[in-house]
Amino acid sequence: MNSEKINAVLIDDSSQARKLLRLMLAELAPDVNVLGECSDLSEGVKSIREYKPDVVFLDIEMPGKSGLQILEELPRDEMQYEIIFTTAYDEYALRAFRLSALDYLLKPISETELNEAVKKIRQRKQLYSSSERIQALNTNLQQKEASVICVPIQNGFARIPLESILYFEADGSYVNIVTVEGKPRTISKNLKYIEKTLEGNSRFLRVHRSYLLNINQVLEYNRSGRGTILMKNGHSIDLARDRKEAFLKVFGT
Hints:
Layout: E1 6-11, H1 15-28, E2 32-38, H2 41-51, E3 55-59, H3 70-73, E4 82-87, H4 91-99, E5 103-106, H5 111-123, H6 131-141, E6 148-153, E7 156-161, E8 165-171, E9 174-179, E10 185-187, H7 191-197, E11 204-208, E12 211-214, E13 218-222, E14 228-231, E15 236-238, H8 244-251
Parallel strand pairs: 1-2, 1-3, 3-4, 4-5
Antiparallel strand pairs: 6-7, 8-9, 8-12, 9-10, 11-12, 13-14, 14-15
């Protein structure tokens, strides 16, 4: 990504919405260079191929093909840019965005949120393909409760089925994700970030300052002492006193 300019394409069927976003960017983020404005996905794909932008501001709810159908129009090797979706979706859908590691701007767009979104783009040293994350988003939006989390790895993002996760374990400023497959995956996020991302998901519960576990992967609970939770992989987790009531309520003991 050019260190001085961030090249952008805007895709929204509303000319008024495009104009407003362009004016907001001009005022708040003059380093964002809007190269193309498009009214539908097909036109947007042409602009993306022509300009090879750093970021695409993409409306979801458009007549014809929605923004979420961009994977049908562009192969993975042509998606080396960031996508910021613009949406009027409800809170459930927004949780799906967070789980899928995709940025979004809730309409009507606020100056604060736009500034924050552009700031993230500036801070990224490398642009990653958005395809894995959009696939995760599509999966999550089709479920009553999200089923996939997208996590950052060294060269992009990985999709992990939530049902396969035993627990998240804090490791300093990192988190170890332990799954039924065995070998943990370490990511450079803290446990608070994961907890916020999974907010509203009934299967995950913080039971200790160092553990966020999948309640469906608990094998048994031992009441002795403070209380010990035995996971299905044989790992024991101490239950924090201030988390005991919440755990017992969910676990049904």
